[in-house]
TrEMBL record:
Enzyme Commission code: 6.1.1.2
Xref: SUPFAM superfamilies: Nucleotidylyl transferase
Assigned protein family: Belongs to the class-I aminoacyl-tRNA synthetase family.
PROSITE patterns assigned to the protein according to its UniProt record, in alphabetical order: AA_TRNA_LIGASE_I
MF term (GO), any: ATP binding
Annotated source species: Saliphagus infecundisoli
UniProt-recorded name of the protein: Tryptophan--tRNA ligase
Amino acid sequence: MTDDEAFTVTPYEVEGDVDYEKLLDEFGADRLTDEQISAFPKPTHPLVRRKVFYAERDVDRFLEAVNTENPHSLVTGRGPSGLMHIGHVFPFYFAKYIQKQTNALVYIPISDDEKYLLKDLPLEKIDGHTRENLRDILAVGFDPDRTRIIVDTADADVVYPLATAFAKEVTQATVDATYGAPPNIGISFYPAVQAVHLLLPQLVDGRHPTLVPIAVDQDPHIRVCRDIASKQRYNVNKPGALLSKFLPSLGGPGKMSSSDDAPSIFLSDDRETVFEKIRQFGFSGGQSSVEAHREQGGDPTIDVSYQFLAYFFEESDDRLDQLAREYRDGSLLSGELKDIAATQIADFLEEHQRRRAEVGSLANELMPYRLTENERSRARKRVGYPTDAVVEW
Ligand code: TRP
């Protein structure tokens, strides 16, 4: 492999030009088939229809539960390493969409421990990001009766006993082989914590299919968790997964990261900022002059503005096809396409920000989404932890 082709994808590092197909062979996940796509509830979410979620594990089992109206759940979480950008939010909007369609249970874990262990940030910074991120997640608008939000350090009474039980199932050699050598012993333990996240709906509510819509770099966590789940004593299904590509960064294909040269579009950006960022940094598939563009046309497949629309921000397939056609034949200019993308993104963000502004005190707002005492003790009991031991002391 030459350096050009080299890429790394682990939960802790995404680098280079990702070959999504090769990654599946490496990880052992399967491509999402057209048949599976057609089994999703209708109307099919654009992220599924357009194969942004392009791969899966055990999605059939989840879809069967959906289509027979049996219990099923989704788990999608957030590592609070900073403010959220548009690449972070689409799994949450996806989960909400499915919840509306099927009344799915949704669990949303926040791994503040993971990001403290991984990033060079003091605890109070991580805590600040947790609070900001929670406001964004609340703004998405999940059904409080069918949704649970868990913060690792704040819900340690349930997370820690379960993680301890699961950690015992995983050897250091497995962690090293799955993730590479961990930078510290906390990161070495963390896969057990994420396994708690992925199994929690079943540990609270009994065995049922769970689907984890997640970016493909998180698949190692799914694999480790599936190994743990295969132990008879827990009586749980292995969690299924719906694995997504990364939203391209403004600067061109690859994961939108907060650290490369082109800025990310944050959920807090106002309309003007969105336009400025896209106009200035948006990688274009157009030609370098208007004349050349009119003559030769542009390439939507590498154009970031088009990709943003195709990934998430333009719902209509017809409109999307029309834009691609006009871009290719040169009648739609790169600047015009940028402004169309910026408009759609700014409209989406304004709606999000309007709902976010309505979120009041975090403690109050979170209350209906927190695990009840009964749910906590049910989960602890499932791994053999004496039910209310802590409370009884
Ligand atoms: N590890 C994820 C990240 O770094 C965040 C996360 C924690 C998560 N638990 C999860 C994502 C469960 C999906 C499901 O982004």
